[in-house]
Amino acid sequence: MAKRRNGSVGLALAAISAVGSPVIAQNAQDLPPVDDALDDSQVGAADIVVTGQRALQESVTKIPLMLQQTPQAITVVTAADIERRLAPDLRTAIELTPGVVASGPGPFQGSSRVNFETALVRGQRLGREVSADLRVNGFRAASEDLPLDPALYERIEIIRGPSGTLYGGGSLAGFINRVTKKPQEPFGLDLEAQYGSFAFKRLEFDATGNVTGDDKMLARFVAAIEDTGSFTEGVTRRRITFAPSVSVKLSGSTRILVEGQYTEFTGRPDVGLPSFLRGDKLVPLDVPRDFYFGRLGNSRVAAQQWQINGLVEQDVTEDWLASIYLQKGRSNSAFRADAYGYTINDNGDTTLYSADSFRINEYWAGEFRLSGKTRLFGQEQDLIFGLERTSANREARAGYTNFGTANIYTDNLDQLPIDTPTVPVFGLIDVNKTTAIYSQMIFTLEDRTRLIAGIRHDWAERTARGTLQTDSTGGRRNKATYRVALSHDITPGLTAFAAYATSFLPVADFTRTGQPIQPETGKGIELGVKFSLINDKLSGAASLYQQDRENVPIGLPRFLECPMLPSCADSGGMQRTEGIEVELVAKPLSGFSLAVSAAFMNNRFTDPDDPNFGLRPTSTVDSQYSAFAAFEFARGSDISLTYLNIGKRSGTFIGQFADGYDRLDLAVNIALNDDWQVAGLVRNITDNVYYEEINQNNASYFGAPRAFLVQLRYSPGSY
Question: How far is 119 from 133, CA to CA, in rounded Å?
Fold first, then answer.
């Protein structure tokens, strides 16, 4: 809801690891308080130009530390960035972050068979059922069964590199934390209306202010409704979201925040396309982008999700703060496909299936945290201690029916009779519980050098039973992980860092016999530099990393290997990922900003005794480039270009690969006056044809053809 500021060009790409949010405070002594520095709506001075290395951050690492001094690659995408690029979803909001490739159906796609929000970070897929690497306000997300509305978020934090000592259950690659909008003291109102290609329509409402007039109670209410078609024939989506929140100051030392969120999602789904396999290469089908691979009929998808979060903060002393976090939620989804194709041969023949499925997820989480300062070794040191408990229950049931073969070239997909699938053919009841304790300390060794040390112990318990099984399977696992990192200020504008960490990640997959897969473990090392030079006109970061993981699940063809289970996998041998990431933000001329990034990665199986030795694992991208250029031609008005290039990608199964793609977007934002603004977006200007998501058997999706989006925004108030 942040209004545009004079000189604030705002780099949607800038969100740089360590360059942080898209505005850089001009002087370190002028920084806002810790909690405000990453809140774009609170950075109020008109002369703040860009946000970056010198911004303080607390929610990412759970203890205060300058972004430039944090020994980890951190990217912050603010609500202002999302507005500036008119990013309609999570994947678009984070797609310019090096080493990060979002997955799932893209903009203007409508709804898919499953609407998971996931991402590949340094070759690892986030958003798996048991993992904690897609989070909301520091907690594991309720469910990724449906994409949550970007209107809910004040910012999105992408943390690359291991953070399990604080967050637990997270991958070695890092995690994504979505920070919700909080109540604010000045009154504010934001109304938005959007209209775009393929019958895209959207309304958004956001209001906040002081309820009691004495700063003791603040409230906020965010709501959005989105109704859209798709470039795929017959596919639709409708999403309704609302999120109230209230913060209360009980006294000068006690504060309470309560947040709620409800989302409802309905539509006619696109189950996606298969790909041709030419040797080891996956090749898109030679069909129009609006081609529906099957028959819609009565196909439908519906999902609901609610959650409530609570936070109580108590100042124990001037230097110590005690916090209690609580979260409770539930999601359920149902899917029906009348006829969809699965696999394809060179002649265009495909097997048609009908399917029914539903899923229910219930979860709760709690955390007690004590953070503060103490004096050791003649220096003031930051410490944090915590205790966590989480529980997640999942039930899934599904049924499939094979009712014949069709051919995409003779176009007889709608001529076969449809059989109603028997439900349930298979299902799963799954319970996951985790208890953890953790501690982290920042040792200030001298004025320019800091040592960060953390340790965590997780106790994970899992019980699962297939609906066709009489006995439950499961087990208990526990493991201690640790992280040690060092950062050193070479000059006031240049910091070097090094980090080493271990990881422990329970996973949701099963063996062929229905036994839970062993937890994934790993270790990683990272070296990097962060800088802000020439009076903050040039900022950037570079990271070099290596990650080794064991017991990574390798998905198996379900119909062949485990037809009575929702999915199954083998535990893989050692996977080594080596990569480099580079980011730069420059302000060479008044009103002009340029941000570029690049990432290169090599990912292979390295155990000579592994049958996959030397092969490329799934979920990897060899290279990634992006550029964002913006020119502010008037106060609060700018024009920008976004370029994204995704290199060669791995396929569905080990050893497969597919070509990458590139895309060019144009956005224009015009401030009509202090309260009214219009904006427009042209996505995929050159109308490139490519698979945005690629798989062998099905669930591949074309990227949207050239599309437009226009927005009218009314935002009075003190923002």
Answer: 10
* DSSP string covering 659-678: --EEEEEEEEEEE-SSSEEE
Dist. CA 503–CA 495, nearest whole Å: 26
Q: What is the pTM of this model?
A: 0.86
Give the total residue count for the chain: 719
Strands (E), 45-165: 56-57, 65-66, 73-78, 100-103, 118-121, 124-126, 134-136, 139-140, 153-160
From residue 452, give the alpha-carbon distance in Å to each of 65, 74, 208, 214, 544: 11, 16, 38, 40, 19
DSSP 488-512: EEEETTEEEEEEEEEEEE----B-T
Placement of tokens 């798709």 in the chain = 230
Q: Find the Cα–Cα–Cα–Cα dihedral 284, 286, 290, 295, rounded to 10°.
A: -90
With tokens 């005690």, the residue in question is: 322
Identify whether the C-beta of residue 544 lies closer than 8 Å to the C-beta of residue 527.
yes
DSSP reduced 3-state for 178: strand
Q: What residue spans define the domains of the chain?
A: 28-714
Q: Which CATH superfamily is domain 28-714 in?
A: TonB-dependent receptor, beta-barrel domain (2.40.170.20)
Strand 281-283 relative to strand 657-658, pairing: parallel
Residue 107, preceding bond cis, omega within 30 degrees? no
Are 244 and 257 a contacting pair, CB within 8 Å?
no
pLDDT score recorded for residue 353 = 84
Write the CA distances from 591 to 10, 360, 537, 636, integer angstroms: 10, 50, 12, 11
584 against 18, higher pLDDT: 584
> Tens digits of per-residue pLDDT, 252-292?
899 999 999 999 989 998 888 888 988 889 999 888 999 88
Residue 566 phi, psi dihedral angles, 5° rounding: -60, -30
Looking from the CA of 567 toward its CB, the CA atoms found within 13 Å total 12
Residue with tokens 């309470």: 256
Q: Tell me: the pLDDT tens digits for 23-37?
A: 222 222 222 222 333
CA 476 to chain centre: 29
The Cα–Cα gap between 555 and 193 comes to 42
